[in-house]
């Protein structure tokens, strides 16, 4: 894969069984992104088994079977391209660790396709995923009204589903134009790559066209430097080398930087990327660097590096809007799970439940509730049990969201509204 086109991470979201995997399979198939030898092998098998024509369903069945055998052409991390972009599919929310991956930057999605089955309409997970997409800062949604073959390709049903989805998107204030609703069948291939003859009432874009027209993700360069530290190495000859990914801003040799919350600072001596010395690092760059006067025990994973003149914020407490995704019982004041924000993992206490809000409109439902539970959106005040660097998401979105983990699962996701500094 060359780099002559910009890259985008694309999330596939939607209720279980509405067709996310099938749609990914179809996109890969239509863009000729499934390796030729795999397709060829299926074609031969299909012929041997006398399956007549080479049906897409046959490809999907085989992909599913491979997945079960652990041979994984799994939908996560598959790549395809259009004229304008290279796309990488990132995990969908049902998959393990999706939320955590989204938040720790590993697979932060730029945009998403929301799959809604025409025969089923908006379902609980459709709601949940849309809310999550909003919380996690996904830019644009393309809505795939899928399984149109199951409703006789009828325009009236399509319009009904579009209305349902629009209501949901209005509630969470997700700006979406009419053109982003596409009636399709992932299984039959209608309106994915090719215009469907089964729906001549539709004259909008097909899915690949809509993806091709997405806005280019903007590199966030006007925020100050924020570089969460993943690891700290000691390298012979170079000394202490923190490594991490630049989330915002720029890093140059000669810069005076500060690491928070460890509170160490010094001047950047050199920066390395892909084993080569560079004189500038920008958002998305994974770098190792060397700072005058800083030893291995002065800084650690979970620190954030920023300009000494505008250092990363360290929170005494912070107020956040959270969405409870799955919790076996209820969350009350005093609850202390582990918060995952960028590369940090810190136990934090939910000090007060300030209010529950309509997950959609943000309207206050109840002030100072006694508890919150799965499906609730709430504003809470949180006290980290150890120093934690985190930023208001309005100011630096890349450092302003977190996942709440407990009992081996992500129980909630959230966005920082404000920080009371230490
Ligand atoms: N008729 C019809 N069936 C479809 C279409 N797309 C998907 N399906 C079927 O719907 C079922 C679920 O599809 P999946 O792609 O596994 O759905 P999913 O959303 O990925 O489901 P999870 O990964 O379990 O969340 C499968 O049996 C598909 O064959 C479609 O366009 N038309």
UniProtKB/TrEMBL annotation:
Binding site for Mg(2+): 21
Catalyses which reaction(s): GTP + H2O = GDP + phosphate + H(+)
EC number(s) stated in the UniProt entry for this protein: 3.6.5.3
Domain of life: Archaea
GO terms for cellular component: cytoplasm
Protein name: Elongation factor 1-alpha
Binding of GTP, residues: 14-21, 91-95, 146-149
Taxonomic source organism: Haloarcula rubra
Domain Tr-type G: start-end pairs: 5-221
